[in-house]
Amino acid sequence: xxxxxxxxxxxxxxxxxxxxxxxxxxxxxxxxxxxxxxxxxxxxxxxxxxxxxxxxxxxxxxxxxxxxxxxxxxxxxxxxxxxx
Length: 84
Description:
Layout: H1 13-33, H2 39-58, H3 66-82
């Protein structure tokens, strides 16, 4: 469940820096759309949800069709917005 898509892959320092920067962009965007002191926490929830959906899809454990997958994903993101 928490495995890597490529087991022996280790991202470079540059790749990790880019990922951190991307997360910062997400957190900033969430803070602009829904201001509050907990914008970092909310960004983490969005990231974790998206990550979970992607990992399930990569593992072949997602819904049977792309349309079903897209609908579930959109509902999950919308649901996160309702708890803010």
